[in-house]
Design goal:
By secondary structure, this protein is of the alpha/beta class. Helices cover about 35% and strands about 25% of the residues.
């Protein structure tokens, strides 16, 4: 398609629809501009990060009507969807494979929560000692309590991130638990990105 201009209104649409519709619009362009209207901060963050990861320039303008306006400029053919810039491991002594750890609870296992908390702490710390490290850790549902203010595991997770593991917390989950302003480590994600990472992984581990 020739240079083009697309207006995209995704106000009122739940995650991951804003990202999906933005991706579809980008796929239509060889080169051009997409103006996106949103009404939720998590959606604006997710769309901005997705567009940036595809090699696009993103400019943001907010107005007085609580509408967030993003101008996405595609100057060249964007990369295939992914998060390579966010998830490429740094060079360490540990080996990184396409292994993903999917944490959907703040506790590990079923049964006593006190025991589950102890087990989750031990599991995360043990990841630091393993010769094979996960490329990504994804936190969903109450698992996002582990990456937000008040979590006793912040430093362990931050060390994993610093040593090359990508840390992703579900934005919808953060919003549901009123934690979106309390994220301490990693980045807020969306269901499109989470689904893509799960499908691209060679192995998925659920502790």
């Amino acid at each position: 398609m020739k240079n083009h201009h697309i207006n995209l209104d995704v106000r009122g649409k739940a995650c991951p629809q804003p990202v999906i519709e933005t991706k579809k619009a980008l796929d239509q362009l060889d080169k051009g501009i997409i103006n996106v209207l949103l009404d939720a901060e998590p959606s604006a963050v997710n769309v901005s990060r997705f567009a940036s990861s595809q090699g696009c320039i993103v400019k943001r303008n907010d107005d007085d009507s609580n509408t967030i306006q993003l101008e996405i400029i595609k100057e060249f053919t964007c990369e295939i969807p992914g998060t390579q810039s966010d998830t490429t491991p740094v060079s360490t002594s540990a080996e990184y494979s396409k292994l993903l750890v999917y944490i959907n609870d703040q506790y590990m296992g079923k049964g006593d929560e006190k025991l589950g908390k102890i087990l989750m702490k031990a599991f995360l710390k043990t990841l630091l000692e393993c010769s094979i490290r996960p490329r990504q850790l994804i936190f969903v549902n109450s698992g996002v309590y582990l990456t937000t203010s008040g979590s006793e595991e912040i430093e362990t997770i931050r060390t994993l991130e610093r040593e090359g593991t990508g840390i992703f917390s579900c934005g919808t989950c953060l919003d549901f638990y009123h934690l979106k302003d309390k994220l301490e480590v990693g980045q807020m994600s969306n269901m499109f990105e989470i689904a893509s990472l799960l499908l691209e992984a060679d192995r998925v581990v659920v502790p």
